[in-house]
Structures are given as C-alpha cells and as structure tokens.
Amino acid sequence: MKQSMILLHGLFGGLSNWHGVVQNFESRYDIHIPPLPIYDQHNQDNLDYLVNYLENYIQQHHLEKLILIGNSLGGHVAILYTHRHPEMVDKLILTGSSGLYENNSLGSFPKRGNYNYIRERVAYTFYDPATATDELVDEVFKTTTNAAKCMRIVRMAKSAQRNYVGPILPEIPTNTLLIWGEEDKISPPDVAHEFLQFLPNASLVMLPKCGHAPMMELPELFNESLERFLLESQG
C-alpha cells in the first residue's frame, strides 16, 4: 500500500504548481492535491477554516502516516495541522512557508486591474522572471479582477500575518525538511533559518538561483532534495 503524500498550494497557487512533484513521485506514493477553499464565504478565522478543511479531507479519504508538503500559505496550513495532529504526520516538508514572516504587498496587489503590474508581481515570486509564464499570469489576473475573490484573498493574507507560529514550532516533533530558495524575496532565507532554529527535528536545503516556489522553478533539484529526505528518514 502506497504512503499518502498531500501537497498544499499557496495563496495564488493551484494544482498545477505541483506538476513536477506529481510526475516524479506518483508511481510510488498516493498523491493528493486538495484545492484549498481560499475563496469560500464563511464566518471562521480564515486560516482555521483551511486547517479544518484539511482535517475533514484527511478524514474523508481515510489517510494516515502522511507526508505533508506545503508551499507558502500551504506550508502555514501544514504547520498548524501537524501541531494539532502530530500522530497523523510522518514527515513534514515546508518550502517558502508563511507563519513567521512574509514580505508581500497583498493589500494593494489584488486591487490592481493592470495586466503588466500583475505580471511584475507574479515574476517577483521567482528568481527567473521567465518562470512567470503567460498562462500563470493570466490565471492570477483573472482571480484579481474578481472583486469577491480579491476581498477574500486580502482577508486570508491578513489572517496568515496575524497567525505567528513561532511559539508552537518547538512543540512539533515531526521529522521536517525545509526546502528554500536562496533568492526568495517573499519569505527570505533568514525565515528558513528561523524555522530551522525553532523546529526540534528539522533540516534545511537552500537552492541557489531560486525564489519563493522551488517546486516550480527548480523542480529537479526540489525532487532530488525531497527524494533524499524520504530515503534517509525511512522508518
């Protein structure tokens, strides 16, 4: 029976962000990419809503002994879930995770209807601006032109900024891998080292010439780091 691997995308992310990981690991792992309900209307704290969604998803699919991988906001959700349910998570992988510090301009970003501005902001996510393909920019632009989605994006971002995970990280015993871009301008390298300091059982891999989404920008190096971690931490 294949071990379950859950991939959690970021605020503007989607299922396609994990294409390289899926291609590399789908033959050996039971991979799940739940679409986080960022745009849902609800009365809960936004981040709690996402964690509750993940809890329900895992229960409904009868998953256990999880490999939980999260990018940016998805990493934040993964941290909170693992803190609540350490017995459910076998391994935790964080890449560009929020929870300690994020440098973003989401307060103004979603309000802009200028396509070139959106392209600049998407390119800011990566070390190599060419990674911001027309398809990716179009997807984000479409989202930012929807007033209701914009409002919920801003609220979600503010919820994440309020939710500082520093105090709970020492309480997470899970074997953890941090994969970080050396040129991450949104969650800078200092943030990765702070996670490493707070988490009791963590290791860090820094990827050169890489920004906020290593699994998209350097998928081969990301997969190599993940592969090595999974092999070394077996059992």
Automatic annotation (TrEMBL):
Pfam families the UniProt entry points to: Abhydrolase_6
Ribosomal protein is among the record's keywords: no
GO MF, any single term: hydrolase activity
Name of this chain's protein: Alpha/beta hydrolase
Species lineage: Bacteria, Pseudomonadati, Bacteroidota, Chitinophagia, Chitinophagales
The entry's keywords: Hydrolase
Organism encoding this protein: Chitinophaga flava
UniProt keyword annotation of Hydrolase present: yes
AB hydrolase-1 domain residues: 6-224
